[in-house]
Amino acid sequence: MPNLFKDKIGGEKYLSIWWFAVIVVVGVGITVGVLFFYSTNVDVRDTESMYLYYKITNCLIQNGFLVSESLDSNFDIFEKCDLDRYAFSGENFYFYINFYDESNLKLREALESDAKDIQKQCDIILHTKDEKLDAKYYPHCVEKIADFLYIKNGVIKKGSLKILTASNNFGIKLPMT
Question: Measured between alpha carbons, how far is 33 from 37 in angstroms, rounded to an integer?
Fold first, then answer.
């Protein structure tokens, strides 16, 4: 059998050019991928406001019944629902909760966090029909009604919670370091 590769020279010269081309393509691909990853904005306002709504609802309503101590005037929602009081002291998160009975009368005063400006912005977003409203930097708000049962004087009655939750937490760009 004759040697097929005998007297074949110059193969390494041509292979090294392709080798460098492959290295350059892989390097550019990795660099572009890293730059895309680190240049994205993280906007979790919708997710956070929905999560806050579900967390408050699941805390105040258990097995379809309103937690009885939530109607007390000294009820601390931050302690009972395991909410960080410090997170609600700034302008990132907000909640407003109204307790109503079946005839739409308030069962107690509303519970709310400190950021009153966010409530005004949510009112503008949720109750304005203007399509030209550019609310790109406004908080994302969730306003829902959750029905519950409660016991008053030994009688089971129906009620509802009107809950407004909002998040203005834009997130940050990831640092390159």
Answer: 6
